[in-house]
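Contributing new records

If you add data, match the layout below exactly. Sequence lines come first and carry their own label; structure lines follow with theirs. Keep one chain per record. Anything else will be rejected by the validation script.
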Amino acid sequence: MSTSRREGGSQPPAAVSTVGLRKSYGDKTVLDGIDLRIPAGTVFALLGPNGAGKTTAVKILSTLITADAGEIRVGGHDLAADPQAVRAAIGVTGQFSAVDGLITGEENMLLMADLHHLSRSEGRRTAAELLERFDLTDAAKKPASTYSGGMKRRLDIAMTLVGNPRIIFLDEPTTGLDPRSRHNMWQIIRELVSDDGVTVFLTTQYLEEADQLADRIAVLNDGRIAAQGTAEELKRLIPGGHVRLRFADPAAYRTAALALTEVTRDDEALALQIPSDGTQRELRSIIDWLDAAGIEADELTVHTPDLDDVFFALTGSDRPNQPNLPTEAVR
């Protein structure tokens, strides 16, 4: 990231920060003391099951509803003191499209340009540039109701960009899209960050999406941050990583099973499972031991926990094997 650091090696400026963010509806606490710091020019993903509070967090940060408590800054502005400045710095695309299907794609874009008080010529130029960027030029004169789901979502984001926001909130932006459209949307999000330098705040239920896109991820559960960090940091919270050795020779299998400690045997498959964090050093140690012992394994595969494991371990209600993870285990 090209954002310059302040003197003394301090952190880059935060695009979004919250301290003690709280929101309740009656006796139902939706957000219970949320602390976040999202550096400018990065992708941040907020994960959580339905009802965890993801959309509520987006609505608060985008000034659509007010928080009950907490210090919130968005784009360098105090949200409570200057919500208008926050609105000028952000764009929001929800899981339900804001596209008007009764008018054309171009007319949708020009309507947004009017809402942002662009001149007629500037509005047409901006609309044309964004329609081309999102590969919608050929469909620009067609009613948006004729667009596919992926096209509507691209138009939705193009409309969001008319105001040149520096921070974009994407609330489950790929819900309902087919795999190809979802991957196209991922590429658009990457380009927004790499080419335009915007900050993307993403909520999603697609764990692969967060793994692919996010610089940092937070898992929200029961109104609190259960853990946050990079995808790799979160995966390291969850035990279960292992190396699996499979043998074609029963004698080699028996020798290895007797010699290795802390292994799980699968006598039918002639396979051994060795606990491992998957680091190169551990793998080299296992391979060196096999070589020194003159034992040949026909297959060696590495299994590491993925974000699915993290998600279910942190948010599942029936998890007898869940590790004892502290709240906000990774910072």
